[in-house]
Design goal:
Strand content: 25-35%
Mean pLDDT: 92
Number of strands: 10
Order of helices and strands: EEEHEEEHHHEHEHEE
Structural class: alpha/beta
Helix content: 25-40%
Low-confidence stretches: none
Amino acid sequence: MNMIEIKNVSKKFKNETVLSGVNLTLEDNMIYGFVGRNGSGKSVLFKLICGYLKTDEGDIIIKGRKLDNNYDFPDKLGALIENPGFMWHESAYKNLKFLADINKRIGAEEVKEWIRKVGLNPESKKHVGKYSLGMKQRLGIAQALMEDPEIIVLDEPMNSMDEVGVEEMRRLIASMKKDNRVILIASHIKEDIDILCDKVYYMKNGKVVDE
């Protein structure tokens, strides 16, 4: 079964067309890269797939089920889009534990393990608001991946990281390409796309084309 089908999707904001007649079929066990200038529609497309926005025209179908008013957020989806939003006055562990308690798919030890996987200390009491941008991004990746999602959507995941962090996160993301998952990545870093992605789409003037 195709994991994600995007059929003739268009989206406007006031008089500006951001996406126009987009058609895509995204299969599992694949990492897809999306490349384009700022404002090309990458983040909007990702938000539509996540259910954060509604299409003006067309359908988004997740594992055979159309996103609509009765199914407005895909099951088993993990996302990092734009700046990660956290409770700045709490620690990394308290932030992720709070999120994990919503779905109750993972417990305290799994939360701590994911914090370690992204190179942070789950025992630290340091408030997330005092983290560097790169550390916040690492924590954002942890929250996107920790509940074993089938669909992973990452918008500029290596933003503000140093070279070591970039290499570590690339390895972590690549390790997730298994078990019938689909991973979508938007990045302005060419190496991210070249190293990680099985297929690349280019976005320009509201359209999506093959490389």
